[in-house]
Amino acid sequence: MIWCRFEAEGKPAYGLVEGEAVREVEGSPFDAYTATDRTRSLASVRLLVPCEPPTIYACGVNYEAHARWASEYFGRDMTRSKPEVNYRGVNALLAHDQAIVIPRDSTGDIHYEAELAAIIGRQAKHLTKEDALSCVLGYTILNDVSERAWQRQDKTIWRSKNSDTFNPLGPWIVTDLDVANAETEVRINGSVASHFATGKMIYDLTTYLVETSRYLTLLPGDVMSLGTDGATVPGLPEGDVIEIEITGLGTLRNHVTREKLN
Amino acid sequence: MIWCRFEAEGKPAYGLVEGEAVREVEGSPFDAYTATDRTRSLASVRLLVPCEPPTIYACGVNYEAHARWASEYFGRDMTRSKPEVNYRGVNALLAHDQAIVIPRDSTGDIHYEAELAAIIGRQAKHLTKEDALSCVLGYTILNDVSERAWQRQDKTIWRSKNSDTFNPLGPWIVTDLDVANAETEVRINGSVASHFATGKMIYDLTTYLVETSRYLTLLPGDVMSLGTDGATVPGLPEGDVIEIEITGLGTLRNHVTREKLN
A158: which chain B residues are within 8 Å (Cβ-Cβ)? Predict the structure, then answer.
């Protein structure tokens, strides 16, 4: 099942992607819903961010090669000895096909981070290893866009990772995914920039759900983004098109622009 | 004007506090609203968290004496050379008069942090010094409850500052506040534990609004919590009652319990 959110007569609506069509739904996947008989062609709809997360949790530094790269890049030990989450701002969410806007005073040292993101489907606390995944509605793709100069010089990740448009999420939510056999590929202007096994995380989703839900109530629509692998490529200049594809989830595509000076 | 949110026949509603009464409102302070002729006695209503923030921004280490104390306490320089925000989780919000619940495996080293919090009233970006405060609906109190053992040992502040119930917010939103002349007082079981001049911040609200809105779109209901002053007292054991009073805003009161073992 593929859930999307799109603009229907100027208002957001949830829909089900059925081949090349989108069937409009009344309600949402997080509550009661009814599929309607209103369908549109997928190509004709403007996709929105696929849900409205109360919280975006980021499971940082969750792949071996990225941990090595990041530790070298930042000149300090970036490995995590246990699963810990950080936060991303909902202001920065961006839909598929919309523009990543580099802030006017950025150095331009903008990196992508291609991440598998789980979407929480129901309220949950004190999950066990056995039932953890039962709270997951499905999966989508998050691009954890990062301004590395700010990330190096600031004490928190507020603007380096949460400037408006820095959290592209989509294109939609797929309810069934074979994480163990999925591959993540990043393409810049059509050329492969990165490719890794999606499932080779240091701490898997079950571990993150169990650990976080010992203390935090997970809420419907929450995003848990599971980190990226490998080195990232410096500089996404204005005009670049970045695509992130994960097997079974499709492709999240965004282009890059620069904020205009007033 | 005093805005509250309360439980009306099992559903949340906004209201206006008028002396000892609450007048129910249709709509919200963030949108169009109509005051109704339905009033209740303030004493009889169950207050809810006074708004539903898309994001809770925390302006950390924003008073001189707290910066000195925290640097000594954590054994590293905690001062900020520029205004930077961090994040708090909405899962952890707690209303006035509700229980702070210490997680079952906490060491019990729970500190309060008494903070003035501004509530954003309208969407805003690229605010200037001159117009920054025009986006503020009003002010309330946030208790930035902190588990110091976890804060010392974890890499992020996920559970040390965002375990469920660790963000008491309230009791309500007051639209007019003389910040420069306000005083913050913390009382534990009725005894004064801390007292400081609310307005003696390192970076004031205007500075935070201007700086953050260069990169982040502020949204209606967002909370910007402005930090605490002084040392904080270790250990809020089960049974304690903590009150935070800020001149003109009233008192945020919560009691402390311990999560039951299953």
Answer: 57, 84-87, 212, 215-216
Residues of chain A with pLDDT under 50: none
Q: Quick one: three-class SS letters along chain B? A: CEEEEEEECCEEEEEEEECCEEEEEEECCCCCEEEEEEEEEHHHCCECCCCCCCCEEEECCCCHHHHHHHHHHHCCCCCCCCCCEEEECHHHEECCCCEEEECCCCCCCEECCEEEEEEECCCECCCCCCCHHHHEEEEEEEECCEEHHHHHHCCCCHHHHHCCCCEEEEEEEECCCCHHHCEEEEEECCEEEEEEECCCCCCCHHHHHHHHCCCCCECCCCEEECCCCCCCCCCCCCCCEEEEEECCCEEEEEEEEECCCC
Instruction: Say whether both B42 and B70 belong to one domain.
Output: no
Domain hosting A19: range is 1-48
If 0-12 CB within 10 Å is exposed, 13-18 middle and 19+ buried, where does residue B82 land? exposed
pLDDT score at B262 = 61
Question: Are residues A215 and B89, on separate chains, in Cβ contact within 8 Å?
Answer: no
Chain B partners within 8 Å of A87 (Cβ): 86-87, 89, 158
Domain's final residue, options A32, A48, A64: A48
CA of B215 vs chain A CAs: smallest distance (Å): 5
Interface touch A91/B158, C-beta < 8 Å: no
User: What residue ranges of chain B have pLDDT lower than 50?
Assistant: none
Candidates B91, B157, B212, partner chain A, best to mutate (most A CBs within 10 A): B91
Tell me the shortest Cα–Cα distance from A258 to chain B, in angstroms.
13
Q: Mutation target for B interface from A49, A91, A123, A217: give the one with most B CBs within 10 A.
A: A91
Residue B40 sits in the same domain as residue B82: no
Q: Are B233 and B254 found together in one domain?
A: yes
Same domain, residue pair A80 and A197: yes
User: Both A172 and A57 in a single domain?
Assistant: yes
Question: Nearest CA of chain B to the CA of A20: how many Å?
Answer: 33
- The interface predicted TM-score of the complex, written ipTM, equals 0.96
Q: Do A91 and B216 touch (CB under 8 A)?
A: yes
Indicate whether B129 and B30 sit together in one domain: no
The beta strands (E) that lie in A63-217 are given as 85-88, 93-94, 99-102, 110-111, 114-120, 136-143, 146-147, 167-174, 183-188, 191-197
User: How many contacts, defined by CB atoms under 8 Å, are there between A and B?
Assistant: 89
Question: How many domains are there within chain A?
Answer: 2
Residues B41 and B68 in one domain: no
B68 and B31 part of one domain: no
pLDDT digits (tens, 9 = 90+) for A173-219: 999 999 999 999 999 999 999 999 999 999 999 999 999 999 999 99
Q: For the domain that residue A220 is a member of, what is the CATH number?
A: 3.90.850.10
Question: The domain that contains A38 carries what CATH number?
Answer: 2.30.30.370
